[in-house]
Amino acid sequence: MSVHTSARSQSGTARLRIGRRHNPVTWVQRGGLTTLVFLLPLLIIFGVFSWTPIVEAVVMSFQKTNLVTAPVFVGWDNFVAVFRDPVFWIAVRNTGYFAGLALLFGYPIPLVAAVLMSEVKRMKGFFSVLAYLPVVIPPVVSVLLWKIFYDASPRGVFNTILGWVGIPPQPWIQDAATAMPSLVLEATWAGAGGTIIIYLAALTSVSPDLYDAAEVDGASLWGKIWHVTLPQLRGILFITLILQIIATAQVFLQPFLFTGGGPVDSTTTILLLIYQYAFTQSLGGAYGEATALSLMLAAFLAVLSIAYFRLTARWSDN
Amino acid sequence: MTARSGPTPTPVLADAAGEPLGQTTRITNRTITLRKDRTMKSPGKIAMLTAAALVGVGILSGCSSSSGGGDDGKVNLVVAPVLPGATADALKSLHDRVAQFEKKYPDIKVKAIEYQWTGTTFAAELAGGTLPDVFNVPFTDSKTLANNGQLADITKYFKQTPTADKWNKNVLDVATGNDGKIYGIPWGPYAMALSYNRDIFTKAGLDPDKPPTTLDEIQQDAKTIAAKVPGVAGYMQMTEDNTGGWELATLTQSMGGKLEKVASDGKVTVTADNPQTKQALAWLKKLRWGDNSMGSNFLFDWSGINQAFASGQIAMYMSGSDVIGSLMQANGFDQKKYGVTTFPLASSASAGILSGGNVDVVNVKDSPEQVAAAVKWINFYRTEPTVDKTAAINNAKTLAKGDQAVNAPTLPVFDKATWEQNQEWIKPYDNIPVENLKPFNDNIFNQKISPEPPSHTQDLYGALDSVVQAVLTDQNADVDTLLKGVDTKVQALVDADGK
Q: Residue B189: which H helix or E strand, with range?
């Protein structure tokens, strides 16, 4: 009996405790309402503009719909259709090619530029402005400007410049072989400024003592960069690398505006293919395929990011 | 803001902030609202600001007048008859026509916007509610959209128009769904043609009154132009956004080939891999790689090639016969330089010229009142000027006043007699030199009209874009393999419809 009473009183206390915790008055007194009010805009904005579309996209990837008539569930058909589309594999290859080229040129150039700029004693501000200027120009405007520069006739801006040094006119975006490198060139020019600013900021946090110590040890300029600058920037380098991979895997603007995916699909990237599925094929009849491919890309990038961070975390520990 | 008042308030063009624009002002804003003139009073400032804000919100929230019913009991209608970037003159003409319409139908309030229908934005705009109430789509797409349930059924109101029974059945068919209902009103049918720049012809020592009449002559003239006028492409075709396939289809059909064959049971077979298409591509290859007479840029969509032609970079190109209307409206092209002739047909009995045109359609989300008003507008704006003498003359006067094409070459929507009668009415207002159009007008009625491939037309055109691009950018392009690839790809889409 006593045991029973004790148990009952214990559960009663527990209930009381729970009750107190969930008492709306106490919750308000403890600032719960204020928290909620502050959180509300965030929840609403994320809910409406991020999470709802994401959930709808997942649902749509299993449907056939033209957004007007009632959607029909088609199971995995959209995913199968994407895998069976020969252009999908071309787009994967093109996106990989773009990412690879961008990594080859676009990744080291800002780093080199930032290191050089940090070594410059005078007119540092001028160089920073010069490097950042392309970022300020609206991306569409810069692509359209470069489209004029890339004019393949001998009178084109770049071809005229090449002509001065005796190089024959290049086809630039008018040829399947040179189109993608031309796109990467513009993308690197347009994107480098932002990364340079990040590196410049990171470089200021490197302690001058380390350079002094290296100098005492007789390190050359290259030695200082290799043994001090790069290891000190390692964290930031890892972040910019993964950000660049994610950004290049989602390249859309350049192929869309420069070439529309041509010549002969040589610049059709995954994102452009998603766009083509959704908007140019069968008058919006392939939203399912578009969302299916979007989800596949998102899943791939998520897995890549997780793997990357696991890997680099280990390197960072070491 | 200038205060104006008068016994009969005239609508004025106003920009997004509600400021009236002088008639000579270049209108850069894309939205034109029609607003009754009123005397501004100082306490009205707040109201004005609110109105300006509302106009702004209106622009952000889209074009369609979703409710359709105005506060004053009027039916609101957003119409989209001019291309973005239309010249101030074009907007002036449009404004005058809107004013005439509102006078005739005082219970309808029309807001005209600049708009270009594209397949890429259509479905999203429809779903998002930002589509205008009346817009025009090409013949290529009207049937597909109607069968997709993406257009309003206008049968009831169409039947009330005075010309409902007069229509050429073949023309009206493009606006008729598989259910037999009417989903739009066709206008301005055209045949594919060869547009050329008369000034460049003269510069190259060619006679602009004697344009080429065979493919060989086009090739020869292009070669001459490329050699004598540096930096100008002798001949060019479109290659991007499905237009590459569209123009290759024209070439193929002009040689007597077909990209799709329809069996008696309705089954469609995609036949892109046919001798005429190969012949067409070989012809392009000869111009590009043999003569180097196609310039250096090979990625052109419709508006891109119009721009290149208008700026004198291209001497001849394949276009719709009515393209001078757009060249004047959007590119400010001087019509005196313009020449047009029929595109050459092979002697084969199956050879025909690909035709096209526009269909004015109505937003499927519109209320019945709006659909009724929309049909009245289309009838007023598009159909009446072709059958009614007064309307034709009024329209021609307005267009001429705004320096817009009055006599752009088109094909009959009803019958040849009505078309000829119409040409007589508007003759005094013609503003494109008639002799420049003579090579086309003299020959077009000798050409057999050939309709577009019927099934998955845009998909087929899109797939063929790559083939045309390959031929123009890769000397060793394997045409056979590429065309077989197109057959496989588009046939799969056609077959999927039957499942």
A: strand B184-197
List the structure tokens of B307.
């721009």
In angstroms, rounded to a whole number, what is the distance separating the alpha carbons of residues B145 and B53?
Answer: 35
Instruction: Give A-chain residues touching B127 at CB under 8 angstroms.
Output: 67-68
Whether A163 has its CB under 8 Å from any CB of chain B: the answer is: no
The answer for residues whose C-beta is within 8 angstroms of residue A123's C-beta and 6 or more apart is none
**With contact defined as beta carbons under 8 Å apart, do B239 and B472 qualify?**
yes
Coil, strand, or helix at residue A206? coil
pLDDT tens sequence across B85-138: 777 877 888 898 999 999 999 999 999 998 888 777 787 788 788 899 999 998
Which candidate from B126, B150, B298 shows the least CB-CB separation from A263?
B298
Tens digit of each residue's pLDDT (9 = 90 or more) over B228-264: 999 899 999 999 888 999 999 999 999 999 999 999 9
pLDDT in tens, A204-243: 888 889 989 998 998 888 888 889 989 999 888 988 888 8
Chain A partners of B493 at a C-beta cutoff of 8 Å?
282
Tell me the longest C-alpha to C-alpha distance in chain B: 76
Among residues B315, B338, B318, the alpha carbon closest in space to that of B234 is found at: B315
Q: In this structure, which amino acid lies at residue B173?
A: D
Return the closest-CA partner of residue B129 out of B363, B359, B362, B370: B363
How does B343-361 read in b/e, with b if 16+ C-beta sit within 10 Å? bbbbeeeebbbbbbbbbbb
Q: What is the 3-state secondary structure (H, E, C) of B192-230?
A: EEEEEEHHHHHHCCCCCCCCCCCHHHHHHHHHHHHHHCC
CB contacts of A281 in chain B (<8 Å) are 458-459, 462
Task: Report pLDDT for A150.
Answer: 93
Helical ranges in B31-164 per DSSP H: 44-60, 88-104, 119-128, 139-147, 155-159
Phi, psi of B347 (to 5 degrees): -75, -10
Selection from A271, A66, A286, A70 nearest residue B123 by Cα: A66
Distance CA B229, CA A107 (A): 44
Residue A133 Cα distances to A126, A138, B97, B105, angstroms = 10, 10, 47, 54
CB pairs under 8 A between A and B: 108
Which helix (DSSP H) or strand (DSSP E) does residue B435 occupy? helix B434-443
Does any CB of chain B come closer than 8 Å to the CB of residue A191?
Answer: no
In this prediction the pTM is: 0.76
Comparing alpha-carbon positions, the chain B residue that sits nearest to A153 is B296
Please give the Cα distance from B453 to B337 (Å, whole number): 33
Task: Give the CA-trace dihedral at B200, B205, B206, B207, to 10 degrees.
Answer: 100
* Nearest partner of B144 among B377, B382, B354, B361, judged by Cα: B361
Q: Which among A174, A276, A284 has the least Cβ separation from residue B473?
A: A174
| Interchain CB contact of A171 with B (< 8 Å) | yes
**Interface probe with A: pick from B229, B457, B473, most Cβ of A within 10 Å:** B473
Q: Which residues does chain B have with pLDDT short of 70?
A: 1-71, 498-499
- The fourth-level CATH superfamily of domain A78-317 is MetI-like (1.10.3720.10)
pLDDT score of A1 more than 50: no
Q: Which residue is listed with tokens 């006028």?
A: B229
